[in-house]
Amino acid sequence: MRESRHRRLTRSASDRILGGVFGGMGKYFHISPNILRVIYAILTILTAVMPGIIIYLILLIIIPPDPAHPGIMGIFQAFNDFNRQINQDNHHSQSRRQLKNVEEKDIKRNRRS
């Protein structure tokens, strides 16, 4: 019972053909991912292919990757975190300078001032 409470639907990193969507769904519902793939392929062919592709892309975006194996998206996330850290460090080191003991002088331009 404890396992079902903490179980999350994620894309599979180990059982994948394209994005791991059906591998993750098979693991979540305790069904063979190959059965889900065959059913999805049949439904996609029967519904003129395009809606099936759109639904798969939506599932690919909505379902998060496996946290233990984030794959290529994990590399992008790590790179993004690294860049954010560098930018914060640069922002703190490049603070504004304050000038002290400054004299102001009027500059005469074209001898009219």
Protein topology:
Layout: H1 2-5, H2 21-29, H3 33-46, H4 50-62, H5 71-93
Describe the structure.
The chain is mainly α and 113 residues long. Helix content is 56%, strand content 0%. The chain is built from five helices and no strands. Helix 2 (21-29) packs across helix 3 (33-46) and helix 3 (33-46) crosses helix 4. The longest helix is centred in the last third of the chain and has 23 residues, at 71-93. The mean pLDDT is 79.
The structural class is mainly alpha
Q: Give the number of DSSP strands.
A: 0
Order of helices and strands: HHHHH
Stretches where pLDDT falls below 50 for ≥5 residues?
none
Overall helicity:
55-70%
Give the termini separation.
Answer: 86 Å
Features:
5 helices; 56% helix; elongated; mainly alpha; 113 residues; single chain
Q: Short description, anyone?
A:
The chain has 113 residues and is mainly α.
